[in-house]
Amino acid sequence: MKIVIQRVSEASVSIDGNIKGAIGKGYLLLIGISNEDTREIADKLLTKIAKLRIFEDENGKTNLSISDVGGEVLAVSQFTLYADCKKGNRPSFIGAGAPDMAKELYHYMLDKCKELFGQVECGEFGADMKVSLINDGPFTIVLDSREVL
Prior knowledge:
- There is one protein chain.
- The protein has one domain (2-148): D-tyrosyl-tRNA(Tyr) deacylase (D-tyrosyl-trna(Tyr) Deacylase, Chain: A, 3-Layer(bba) Sandwich), CATH 3.50.80.10.
- Helix 1 (39-51) packs parallel to helix 2 (99-117).
- The longest helix is centred in the last third of the chain and has 19 residues, at 99-117.
- Helices cover 24% and strands 38% of the residues.
- The strands form two sheets. Strands 1, 2, 3, 6, 7 and 8 form a six-stranded mixed sheet that branches. The protein has a two-stranded antiparallel ribbon with strand order 4-5.
- The protein is globular.
- It has helices at 39-51, 99-117, 145-148, and strands at residues 2-15, 18-23, 26-32, 55-56, 62-64, 72-77, 120-122, 129-144.
- It is of the alpha/beta class.
- The model has no long low-confidence stretch (mean pLDDT 97).
């Protein structure tokens, strides 16, 4: 599993010109799922994200978690995180999870996010989405389950 975490001042996702989800201060999570991913992997990564201390405290140090600042989460599925560009100029997405499995795991993750973070907005699995954000910092972290678990 690959998750791109962007600390944002605000973010939104729209489908066909209609806003599907929008948040203020918090995290935009771009979630890529592979065929090897499980609920256990999802749980571990989301717990790590909940505990990350990347918001500034009163001294300007990144020392606060998302819950410390009352942040929100916008979660968007993004199979293109598994793009393989080794051969040629057209990416292969063979490393991305099969749609049915990935969709089920993505929805599981949304439920888990609601338990961990409270305020959670989301995109729509498989839809053509437009994502807007103001990256705060900018601050972006990439978690790959093969590297952090």
